[in-house]
Amino acid sequence: MWLTYFKELLNPKTNMITAEVYTYFSPECNIMAPTLQESLGVIRNLKNNRAPWEKSLTSELIKYGGRKLWKNRIHQLITTIWDKEQMHQDCGTAIICPICKQGD
């Protein structure tokens, strides 16, 4: 049942009409990129003991990696994504894991 559902969901039929691309405009056109302090605040608030990302990168590794990692790598990645308005290719993978309740 779940196998069929996810196959249909993730592998749409080829004869489907391609969705139109919409461009949205916000009232604030020049929002500044996050500062280092804002990025550090988010990093400090990361929760421990969460499932690792695709590359086995856990939030603990980022959180306790030190200021050099935060400033030279993480914040630089955040500002690059902000400026380009596009996620990196490696960040596009989602892992779907259905959790069935008792009786389903």
Give a structural overview.
1% of the residues are buried. This protein has 4 helices and no strands. It has helices at residues 2-10, 36-44, 59-63, 67-84. The mean pLDDT is 78. It starts with a helix and ends in a 20-residue tail after the last helix. The longest helix has 18 residues, at 67-84. It is mainly alpha-helical and 104 residues long. Helix 2 packs across helix 4. The protein is 39% helix and 0% strand. The chain has one domain (2-92).
Mean pLDDT: 78
Low-confidence stretches: none
Q: Please state the CA-atom Rg, rounded to the nearest Å.
A: 19 Å
Shape: flat
Structural class: mainly alpha
Q: For the record, give the distance between the C-alpha atoms at the N and C termini, rounded to a whole number.
A: 11 Å
Biggest sheet: strands, sense, closure? none
Helicity, in percent? 25-40%
> In percent, how much strand structure appears in the residues?
under 5%
Helix count, per DSSP? 4
Order of helices and strands: HHHH
**Total number of distinct structural domains:** 1
Strand element count: 0
Question: What is the strand and helix layout of this fold?
Answer:
Blueprint: H1 2-10, H2 36-44, H3 59-63, H4 67-84
In short:
This protein is mainly α and 104 residues long. It is built from four helices and no strands.
